[in-house]
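User: Second chain of the day. Same drill as before.
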Amino acid sequence: MYSLIFRILFVPMDAERAHHLSLTALRWLDSVPLLGRLLRLICGTGTVRPVEALGLPFPNRVGLAAGFDKNGVGVRALSNLGFGHIEVGTITAHAQPGNDRPRLFRLRDNVAILNRMGFNNDGCRQASFNIATERKRIASLPQRQRPVVGINIGKTKVVDAADAMADYAASTRALAPLADYLVINVSSPNTPGLRDLQSVSSLEPIIEAVRSTAAEVVPAPRSTLGHVPLLVKIAPDLADDDVLDICDLALRTGVDGLITTNTTIDRSVLAGSEADFAAGQAGGISGRPLADRSLEVLRLVRAHVGQDLTVISVGGVADANDARARLAAGADLVQVYSEMIYSGPFFPGRVIRGLEPNRLLTRGTGGA
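Assistant: Same format as last time:
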């Protein structure tokens, strides 16, 4: 049914407009109590597979990656699909429109997405209001069904790299009190100069600023770690040695985890005419073509950090088999996004139900 809807309704539609329509529809369904319960019954049944990570109780290991709900307006609605955690953002200290349209493209033959959104969002002040509202709404759910809420923060485009530390701290001050965990995003290819902040010399003061600010504004965190868990999201395009440098930095500075990986700028992962199209377009590629490198980086990170960090794997997870492979390779949690665009709202539940329950119950908690 969704495949038919996708071909008839969404394929002819601009990809960004289709995205907004999807989120609006989910929020509307959730606003009607009977329809919201029906959606949760259909999509979310059998998705409660409790696990602990980051000192937090997750309903299951599968979450929604940042980028779908940029302003934190749909956490409760998205939880109906069965997600164990929802990562909001990326949010910047100041509101910004993002890059010029069109900026989101489906690469259907490759089952991929190309985006150059540019952190379009309403800014941390508005997002804090939205997320506070959504937290009140998910509080009405049974405890075991409440998703963990992560907040992904990035640098405002007009802020110079030299002022990035203060910019990230400003977002942290507004958003940390509402976050179950925080993510420093320095790996999107769509903000000029952002990936340069992945260098150890640039990233370390940002980590310290975010950690100290979060500790200041959140004296009683929800996590049993005793602080708001902090993760860093890295790019798949980093050289292996640079990945290891970030691992060492994370261990040295007390970062709690890494998210591997963001979108790629490598066009060689694409095949056919879409590769030629993408070669002439700016932006990052997500979806199935990212799977191999994302898995490589996951294995590299886990081998280097042991069980000292929580690792969240994202990029090219197409089904439960892929999710199982990420867990077997050392991931504590898995995130999805692009595949849901092609497979529809039933996709998260299928992945979660397809995981082996015994593995979920016996696997270690990584950096928890």
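The CA atoms of residues 120 and 321 lie 33 Å apart.

User: Great, on to the next one.
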